[in-house]
Amino acid sequence: MIGNFKYKSIEKQYNKLKEKNIVSNNKGGKVKSVAVILDNASLENVITSNLASKLNFDKKNITFLVYRNFSKKDEEVPKFFTEKEIGFNASLKSDNLKNFVKNDYDLLINYTKSSNLYTNVITLHSQAKLKAGFAGIDDKLFDIVVSDATFNEAVLNQELKKYLTILNKI
Question: What separation, in Å, do the N-terminal and C-terminal C-alpha atoms of the chain show?
Fold first, then answer.
């Protein structure tokens, strides 16, 4: 009962914030720091190598935040977050999430393959200069939206390279 009430509260606040959200504060300059949001931790190594090789990003400048369902058995690890770390009214409870969204990344890439309220809240709160993700998740969140029916990370990276080159970001 409380869980459903909390979810609705987060969703309501998220929708309000999304309507007020103005597209990222995209300033000039090349992309150096990259934030990545995932909902599948097993993709981290593949995405790191893909971003480093295809888009020439330095591996040490890529930060990951991975959503996973809450389990009492799981230990707290800074790169993971759960729904328990997001409070009523879409507030961020953990210092880990607060630091992630405050960090001024040049690019945030959301690789989630289905709409997830919790990863969307983090994307919305993020101070990243440029945000990218798949179409159909929530297009209002992103500056660069890539449509791919299979939600293939390689396609997103390929399109990102094309648009970042056009925008003179890489």
Answer: 48
